[in-house]
């Protein structure tokens, strides 16, 4: 199994990558940009970027803060990530963010994820600023 060292000195493995991917997907479903989400919820932008891009092992406190801000249950994120890890292990595929084409920007990736999945959650409008 492939892994890399995170900025917090721990190995980033499949589960952290899957949790990061699920959190990115949730942000996209809720139509948040990373910068806007961080500012609106007083989350450190650099920590949020590292968490969403699997640049570090996902911290439980960070996971909880992000989930609360999104109005979702942390257990749902863990469950979805676990299913994805099991699926990828069964098919010997690693479908996470780091494996996408380098020509695809984050914005294009998030847009594609958002368009591919329907959301039934109403998202409040926040003024840009």
Q: Topology, pairings included?
A:
Blueprint: E1 4-5, E2 11-12, H1 14-29, H2 34-40, H3 45-52, H4 60-70, H5 74-91, H6 106-116
Antiparallel strand pairs: 1-2
Task: Summarize the structure in words.
By secondary structure, the chain is mostly helical. The chain has helices at 14-29, 34-40, 45-52, 60-70, 74-91, 106-116, and strands spanning 4-5, 11-12. The protein has a two-stranded antiparallel sheet with strand order 1-2.
What tags apply to this protein structure?
single chain; 129 residues; mainly alpha; two-stranded antiparallel sheet; 6 helices; 2 strands; 55% helix
Query: What is the rounded Rg?
Result: 14 Å
Residue stretches low in confidence (pLDDT < 50, at least 5 long) are 1-6, 97-102, 117-124
Which strand order does the major sheet show?
Answer: 1-2
Enumerate how many helices there are, as a single number.
6
Instruction: Please give the number of β-strands.
Output: 2
Q: How would a textbook summarize the main sheet?
A: 2 strands, antiparallel
State the separation between the terminal residues, measured CA to CA: 42 Å
């Amino acid at each position: 199994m492939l892994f890399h060292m995170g900025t917090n000195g721990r190995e980033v493995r499949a589960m952290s990558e899957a949790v990061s991917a699920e959190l990115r997907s949730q942000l996209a479903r809720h139509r948040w940009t990373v910068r806007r989400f961080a500012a609106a919820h007083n989350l450190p932008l650099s920590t949020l970027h590292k968490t969403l891009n699997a640049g570090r092992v996902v911290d439980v406190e960070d996971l909880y803060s992000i989930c609360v801000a999104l109005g979702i249950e942390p257990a749902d994120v863990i469950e979805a990530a676990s299913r994805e890890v099991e699926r990828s292990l069964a098919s010997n595929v690693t479908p996470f963010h780091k494996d996408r084409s380098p020509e695809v920007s984050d914005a294009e990736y998030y847009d594609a994820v958002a368009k591919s999945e329907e959301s039934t959650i109403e998202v409040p409008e926040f003024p840009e600023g």
